Amino acid sequence: MMGFVIMVGGAYRFTGNTFNRRNMYALSGFASVWAGAMLLMPHYSFASFFLIMALRTVLFVWAGCMILKFMPPHRTAGRRLAGWSLIAWGVYVLLFPFFFQFPSLIHPGFGFLVGFHVLAALGFVVLVVDRVRSRAEESEDHVRRLEGFLPICSHCKKIRDDHGIWHPIESYIRDRSDAEFSHGICSECLKTHYPEFNS
């Protein structure tokens, strides 16, 4: 059960959400119900088993719904595959005990389980690849903003933008990147402009 809870937590963080007090209450509630079901297993095996299956179903459906709801819409392939696979897996977990009533469904039932595992894993791989690709594209766009020829004044070193307005080099770069400037003086300028401080 803890592995499934960790999976839901991973899906929650992967979708960009942060943990808060409400999440801790939900996690404590799940852990309490699961521990209670485990303690009652020797006395009420069917009810405990069904409760554990219901908890797994809630976890899988919850993770699938989070992925479908919170992932950016442009990542449709991985989002749909992972989200719907987890939801189907959750419903399957709840229905699986009933397969034992029909011996001919047991083997196909295990095949479905493996299929849902593979589809959910593949969906998560596609989500990760989409995220890496989008971050690479963002980095490319960031670098591209400072590429190409820059018209610069040979005297004051201001840079002309696309609208013909001249900007100090510091403000031009700061507006188009995350760079910050700290000012100092190089040794050549120190000799030329402040010879009294040159030692």
Automatic annotation (TrEMBL):
Q: Where are the transmembrane segments?
A: 23-41, 47-69, 81-100, 106-129
Q: Would the keyword Transferase turn up in this protein's UniProt record?
A: yes
Q: Which UniProt keywords apply?
A: Kinase, Membrane, Transferase, Transmembrane, Transmembrane helix
Gene Ontology MF terms: kinase activity
What is the protein's name according to its record? Answer: K+-sensing histidine kinase KdpD
Q: What is the lineage of its organism?
A: Bacteria, Pseudomonadati, Thermodesulfobacteriota, Desulfobacteria, Desulfobacterales
